[in-house]
Amino acid sequence: MTDDTITISPGPQFQAAMALAILADVLQIAVFPMFIEGALSPADDMLDFGVGALLIHLLGWHWEFLPSFFAKLVPGVDLVPFWTLAVVNVYRKSKQMAVSEEERHDQRPVLTDHSVS
Known about the structure:
Blueprint: H1 12-30, H2 32-35, H3 42-59, H4 65-71, H5 82-106
Helix pairs in contact: 1-3, 1-5, 4-5
């Protein structure tokens, strides 16, 4: 059995997802007049559908993306960076799962062979 440690580092997919989420949130905040209508804005809806699809492509399906998408449909809620928060939460959960998996790996008893040959 090897004594490898699990290291969590943001890989290129996470970095791309984080950059995309930050860009989408900044765009929705900085270009506020264009997206002010919330659920009534087709440009905002297209942006959210595109960001959601790309994040799922990059990181896989996570339940954190669903509230982010629905919150963006409410007028004025675009001021909260939900996409960025969702990606950070996905990374946080994956890190917690890896740490718990490592702890479970460390707690396994060592099997010894007590058979007499």
